[in-house]
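Box S1 | Example of a co-folding query
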Amino acid sequence: MTPRDTPPGPLLDVRGLTVRTDDGRTLVDDLSFTVGGGERLGLIGESGSGKSLTTLALLGLLPDGMTATGSVELAGTQIVGAPEKRLTAVRGRDAAVVFQEPLTALDPLMRMGRQIAEPLARRTGLKGRDLRTAVTDALVRVRLPEPDRIAHAFPHEISGGQRQRVALAMALACEPSLLIADEPTTALDVSVQAEMLDLLDTLVREREMAVLFVSHDLAVVAKVTDRVLVLKDGRAVEEGPVLDVVTAPKAGYTRALVAGARKLESALDLRSPR
Ligand SMILES: Nc1ncnc2c1ncn2[C@@H]1O[C@H](COP(=O)(O)OP(=O)(O)OP(=O)(O)O)[C@@H](O)[C@H]1O
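Box S1 (continued) | Returned holo structure for adenosine-5'-triphosphate
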């Protein structure tokens, strides 16, 4: 990871984050949490609990008709209320996001190689043949076979699992300090899911990158995070080390989540020591 002049304190410091619609509905309610450099936090809750809106608010990407209040400091930059120019500088460099549906992040009319080349060129200044080599390397690093074929393909010409790897390669191309992964495996087949989780785990570990991992699936979160924050109806109901929350959940809602978590046992067995 390229060292940057980041101020002391957590990499991501969220205080009293609240998201309201223009017609007065509160969808995220007074949320506070931190993510330190290299730390992995899981954000968990069932559908509609406010996970996606929280991640969008962290990067100033809320849809029209919604407003965030409170404070989100990312690597020392205040995101809430920041002008677009400041947000553009932060996105990709300090935090990059991988969404559930990679097509959200990919331009359907641009070959995959060019899409990865753009952030790579911005960060490294590479051009021409060197840039092409760097693109191939980035595709190899996310374990894509036939990187040259993938680089020449359009998004619809490769599989969903391959697209998600390309989206991950794009997110990593800027070497962000924080990777936000919003249900990155939910749309994938179960076998592909496990590979993707393993890949994500390895790549962020190598880079000592912090991760905010968003999922409705406690088993998945238990595999890849250190700490977990449980959301219900836009509010935090519980937070703690993932093993504590899983083995001794305090809130009734968390207890129900744990009871319902499929394959939790096997997930914990597979959890690699950190
Ligand atoms: N563009 C929008 N306009 C109005 N309400 C919205 C919008 N997007 C989300 N919501 C509402 O905000 C609440 C939180 O949604 P959010 O998408 O953050 O939940 P989530 O936990 O990410 O769920 P899922 O796992 O299904 O994506 C829900 O009640 C949802 O209906």
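The two ends are 19 Å apart (CA to CA). The first strand starts at residue 12 and ends at 21.
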